[in-house]
From TrEMBL:
MF (Gene Ontology): RNA-DNA hybrid ribonuclease activity
Coiled coil: none
Cofactor binding note: Manganese or magnesium. Binds 1 divalent metal ion per monomer in the absence of substrate. May bind a second metal ion after substrate binding.
InterPro entries: RNase_HII, RNase_HII/HIII, RNase_HII/HIII_dom, RNaseH-like_sf, RNaseH_sf
EC code: 3.1.26.4
Lineage: Bacteria, Bacillati, Actinomycetota, Actinomycetes, Micrococcales
PANTHER family, sorted: RIBONUCLEASE H2 SUBUNIT A, RIBONUCLEASE HII
Name of the protein in its database record: Ribonuclease
Record family assignment: Belongs to the RNase HII family.
Record has Hydrolase as a keyword: yes
Primary residence: cytoplasm
Catalytic reaction annotation: Endonucleolytic cleavage to 5'-phosphomonoester
Amino acid sequence: MSVVAPKLTLERRLLSECDLIISLDEVGRGALAGPVAVGAAVMDAAGARRRVPEGLRDSKLVTERRRPDVAARAAAWVQASGVGWASAAEVDSVGIMRALGLAASRAVQSVVDSGVVLDGALVLLDGNHDYVSPVHPVPLRVRPVVKGDRDCASVSAASVIAKVARDTYMAELHESHPAYQWDRNKGYASLEHRDAIRSLGLSPHHRSSWAIADVPTLF
């Protein structure tokens, strides 16, 4: 069954009411190791009239081999993009939802640092819960959108940009901790990853507050 490509229908409607959209999506929420990352993709009215890049989808629907190319084209398509991070230690310290908020707030700040002006901006957040407003230091207009990463092209762009950035980071961590096979499982609960945890214990990059031994195998 073919996958329907994301569109700009919602973005175009919202951009009649605001100056620009900062779309956010997270990756790494369910991983056992590594940070959570939130991608940000900025869209204005002129950008929303441009054609959606070929192959752009929610990152989960793009093959690993194709993701870097799609992410590069997505980053070139939007007006600005960035990635915010929250470490495994922060997940342990403040919990996953607040860590997601920290990463999202840092993603917003990353595009502000590149010149994006927050006044008149609307944050389009994948999901059904606003986890960024309680953390961000200045008030934001936030609109959560269920399945935004699937349906909204700007959120799909944020999704694939964040996914490639986090996958690259986990592959780099693999070099110093090869037994966990993070180059393959990206910190998620693969059978090999769990076997390595049982044999070697946890690394400094694992989320030690989680009941890791009891999680289901995801790969």
